[in-house]
Amino acid sequence: MRQRTKSPANGKYPAPPSSGTLSLRNMSPEPTLATPQLLTDQDLYLFNEGSNYRLYEKMGAHLVTHKGEAGAVFSVWAPNARSVSVVGSFNEWDPKTHRLSPRGSSGIWEGFLPGVTRGALYKFHIESQRHGYRVDKADPLGLLHEKPPRTASVVWDLEYQWSDRDWMEKRATRNSLRAPQSIYEIHLGSWMRVPEDHNRPLTYRETAPRLAEYVGQMGFTHVEFLPVMEHPFFGSWGYQTTGYFAPTSRYGTPQDFMYLVDYLHQHNIGVILDWVPSHFPSDGHGLAYFDGTHLYEHADSRQGFHPDWKTYIFNYGRAEVRSFLMSSAMFWLDKYHIDGLRVDAVASMLYLDYSRKQGEWIPNKFGGRENLDAIDFLRRFNQEAYKEHPEIQTTAEESTSWPMVSKPVYLGGLGFGMKWDMGWMHDTLRYFSNDPIHRKYHHNDLTFRSLYSFQENFVLPLSHDEVVHGKGSLIGKMPGDEWQKFANLRLLFAYMYAQSGKKLLFMGCEFGQVREWAHDSSLEWHVLQYPVHRGVQAWMEQLNRFYRNEPAMHLLDNNPAGFEWVDANDNATSTISLLRKSESPQDTVLVVCNFTPVPRMGYRVGVPHGAYWKEMLNSDAREYAGSGLGNLGGVQAEEIPTHGRPFSLKLTLPPLAALFLKAS
């Protein structure tokens, strides 16, 4: 789990403010706003029931024409408010001017303000029933917010002409568990910057052609953006979200972000968003202590405050909070054509005692540690997402052994489509950090995954979490001299692609960035002038293309029939061999990995049938800055039984390298 730096504002769990602020009884009464009431009684009922999953259609700020007069309808949930008004650039931020009306007992305040136009700044001024608390809050359902550090919401719309029809019609096939999914994980603020313009990040529109060209060239199938939802503290990378319905304005408008998604789709690249329903920051303009009470979060800090991240935990048992979060998820799928949501920090949602000591948490009604409300919420989220958009995928970042995370709800699962294999990531990086002379004593780190590899639909991640907070870069984790480091990195990627499961790689790793990732500077693109970095990049490109083009490498990624060990136990030479298979025997691919810098001459590996086995890929080839050792294009199988198979190949295994062979 990543370490999140807390937002600068309100680092501690807030105490109710003291009384003594101006009382409403001392204010002259003001007329409330006449309202064209976008919200129907049915909408309110579903909201209070926890099953209104499209709040963004009618809550927040919406431009309308009422009785021939153009303006905006504003609405906000603040059930413990004594009074709510809209303040903004249109009324000199005066809380007395435009007050909203309560909608029965729903807790929602609503009103129409004539003359408000697109681009107007606004907040909700809330006078609480408790403690005389008064505060200006950004719109929880705002479509756009001011560029941080400013915090006002912006009246906006989502008008956009999409041009990705072809992608949308075909994406069910491209997002299928049987399809190749090679995901490029990106932080928009640091992928590429403009040094001649104060080192600023690219805008959404500037990113679109550059990213589409690069991802297409490298052969990735999808991009996954670290959270683009509005967040006040840039150093949180988006994981401390305040605007659950707004892409960050740091890089442009909602339409600009739509353009980026649209452009990627037009170039056959899927888009996955990181989504954070697990916690939210304590910034004063955000969701925390919204109406003078703990509205979105639990009042008891043992349930509502996260000790690691100094953030608030959503109250999943509150119906209106479920409506809010469910609406956020559906918003990105409905309005932004997103192909999948990766849900962050699922483990912290599932366990009431997550990162807490004895006595610091409250058991559930059965005395257990499971968060029953969060479990119910996650199941509802997945059911609704797949019901409305069956062609997308949801993915869980879940680091424990919770069962059936990626199994359907009707079978007792959480309903996700896929789950990150965090265990594989940690085991593999631990293995590669060992000097090759010691690797034979840690061989089980390579093979342990076989005990559980088909219990879930896994994504194999080498993510941003592994290249920050002092962990160094991937190339920095590799032992040996420069040649060995880069050979190890190419071998790591080969081993990753040989394993069953979808793939995810964080930006910069694909060309062996040297320094640890820094969110406030560009990737080290300049290192591509060196052959070793270009070699890793070229190897990554070829791996992606081989993975996409060979059915055996992806078709049965989540099926035991697609994977077979040839020899998983040769720890003496730190070598493994395996078969990747599809539904046709003709597609079978043999992968052999040598995890030592010692070339293995005449190494015999069993194969299922006699044929000429062509060397499809060799990570030690000179084009990847390797030594050039190999098998001269391929090897003829001999009728010499080995590894329980009737035929075998006599191979030359290059040092710290992987071979991919296929019968022709």
What is the global morphology? elongated
Number of strands: 30
Summarize the amount of helix as a percent range. Answer: 10-25%
Structural class: alpha/beta
Which CATH architecture of one domain is right?
Sandwich
N→C terminal distance: 44 Å
CATH superfamily of one domain: Immunoglobulins
What is the CATH domain class of one domain? Mainly Beta
* CA-based gyration radius: 27 Å
**What is the name of the CATH topology of one domain?**
Immunoglobulin-like
User: For the largest beta sheet, what order do the strands appear in spatially?
Assistant: 9-12-15-18-19-20-21-22
Low-confidence stretches: 1-32
Strand content: 15-25%
Quaternary: single chain
Q: Compute the average pLDDT.
A: 93
Q: Number of helix segments?
A: 13
Mind summarizing the main beta sheet? Answer: 8 strands, parallel, barrel
Outline:
With 664 residues, the protein is an alpha/beta fold. It contains 13 helices and 30 strands. Helix 1 (41-49) crosses helix 6 (319-335) and helix 6 packs parallel to helix 8.
How would you describe this protein?
The protein is of the alpha/beta class and 664 residues long. Among the domains are: 24-154, Sandwich (Immunoglobulin-like); 560-663, Sandwich (Immunoglobulin-like). Helix content is 22%, strand content 23%. The strands form eight sheets. Strands 9-12-15-18-19-20-21-22 form an eight-stranded parallel beta barrel, surrounded by five helices. The chain has a six-stranded antiparallel sheet with strand order 23-24-25-30-27-28. Strands 1-2-5-4 form a four-stranded antiparallel sheet, with no helix packed on it. Helix 3 packs parallel to helix 4 and helix 12 (482-498) runs parallel beside helix 13 (531-549). The longest helix has 19 residues, at 531-549.
